[in-house]
Amino acid sequence: MNNVPVDLKYAKSHEWARLSGDVATVGITDHAQHELTDVVFVELPEIGRKLKAGDACAVVESVKTASDIYSPVSGEVVEVNKAVVDNPALVNSEPFAGGWFYKIKLSDAAEMAALLGPREYLSQIGG
Amino acid sequence: MLKRTPLFAAHQKLGGKLVEYGGWEMPVYYTSIMDEHQAVRRAAGLFDISHMGEITVSGSAAPWFLNSVLTNDIDNIGPGGGQYTLLCNERGGVIDDLYAYQLSQEVYFLIVNASRTEADVAWLQARAAEFPGREDLRLTDASHQYAAVAVQGPRVVEFIDACIPGTACSGTRVDRVTALKKNQIAGFACGHANVQVSRTGYTGEDGFEIVGRDDSIRQLWDGILAAGGPFGIRPCGLGARDTLRTEACYPLYGHELDENTTPIEAGLGFFVSLDKGDFMGRSILAEQKAGGVSRKCVAFKMTDKSAPPRPQYPIWAGGAKVGDVTSGTQSPSLGVGIGMGYVPSELAKPGEVIGIEIRGRRSPAVVVRKPFYRRS
User: How much is the ipTM here?
Assistant: First the structure.
């Protein structure tokens, strides 16, 4: 629940971003998946969709609730994770790996620096 | 200030995720809804149902009174018996759905929904005040006197007798708990007090509901978890309670039932006894049984991969909105989205295709026969 990889950046709303070149991979944190418990459905943005940081861009549903996912950065969606659509349980078992949601080509690289670092995120979730 | 049941400390100790439910602070799950749901289907689950209401109705006029306010025929049950029944208003609208038990010759016991206890008591007291036999009738809201648990699942029979040993001291005189038949109730000694045990439940599995004083129920909670441990019992919260009852197509007051919905529209005509004599709402219900209703509660399954249906999502057919989802979830046992909702009667046939509006898009679903799940 307090697994917070040090090589990622975090949003207050529990999304993470991993930068590689000018493309960030986005998912939700271990803390978030633990709060949701069993994820039964994931709705991802379409490839080509343009997002602003803070836009509601995906939905994660557990048995009991539907939760909006907010893009931590602005840019254009270039890839989505079909595996997590086919097997939503990946969000619970591999929130930082196989349970990733989408990849976004950044329109403003400075936004990554504005996200929380691992220590800030960890203290936000009470770790 | 939220109300807490006598088992609140137990929920905290077990790490239950506590949420507000009808004015009570209750566990929605302990580990996960999926885990707890599967435990009930495969082995056993234990639920705190202390928030439910209990009303005693006694005196020689009790059965006469109850038959004038409830839809089912109380004369069918006898001492130690119980039946599902409904309390309706003069328009046949449902005030509550409940279980009525006859504990002894002149003592009846009603178990009602937590969210409706106050409304039920007020209604019954008002009806009793004008009842011709009221001199021989006593009505008591006993809810604050009792706690209760439900233990449900195919393996419950393997350990429950050890938790409540001995022979029944009242009601159906069985020599052990597992000898009770469905809907039967009996009193058993449990420590220094007695508990009422009925073979009933809200999950679609075999099981028992146990009502007693706070201390008896606290002890039983621990005892049942201990005895059931080797058989795979889990404590279960309101989340699993909801997914289990939805799979079994049991109505939930405030969803499939409300004061503007009749038992006939809800598909509960079986529990409306028109030939027992007059009762509150009878004339409308008789009209509906004979002439039909314009809307009906159906069960439906999502047919394409989609997000699960949820209460209040619109139902579409023929290019128009025709109704609303009243209950919906991803079914842990079936792996698809399932739900119940009201549609025009013409569409209330298995095989009828409908659309469920989820976040502005319509996903296809099909009306199916109830229930989604039946235990083997």
Answer: 0.89
CA nearest to B196, candidates B212, B213, B218: B212
Q: What is the CATH number of the domain that holds A37?
A: 2.40.50.100
d(CA B334, CA B330): 8
Contact A41 B307 (CB under 8 A): yes
Tell me whether residue A24 is in a domain. Answer: yes
Look at A64 and A40; give whichever has higher pLDDT.
Answer: A40
Residues of A in contact with B29 (CB under 8 A): 37
B328 touching chain A per CB within 8 A: no
For A58, the closest chain B residue by CA position comes to B359
Asked whether residue A2 carries a pLDDT value surpassing 90, the answer given is no
Which overall architecture, per CATH, does domain B294-376 show? Answer: Beta Barrel (2.40)
Residue-range definition of the domain harbouring residue A79 = 9-107
Q: For domain B8-49+146-246, which CATH number applies: 3.40.50.460, 3.90.1010.10, 3.40.50.300, 3.30.1360.120?
A: 3.30.1360.120
Chain B CB within 8 Å of residue A40 CB: yes
Stretches in chain B below the pLDDT threshold 70: none
Q: Where in chain B is the domain with CATH 2.40.30.110?
A: 294-376
Asked if A63 reaches chain B (Cβ–Cβ under 8 Å), the answer is yes
Contact B350, B368 (CB under 8 A): yes
B106: CB partners within 8 A, 6+ apart: B58, B59, B60, B62
Predicted pLDDT of residue A64? 86
Please tell me which residue of chain B has the smallest CA distance to A68: B359
Residues of A in contact with B306 (CB under 8 A): 41
Q: Are B243 and B338 in contact (CB under 8 A)?
A: no
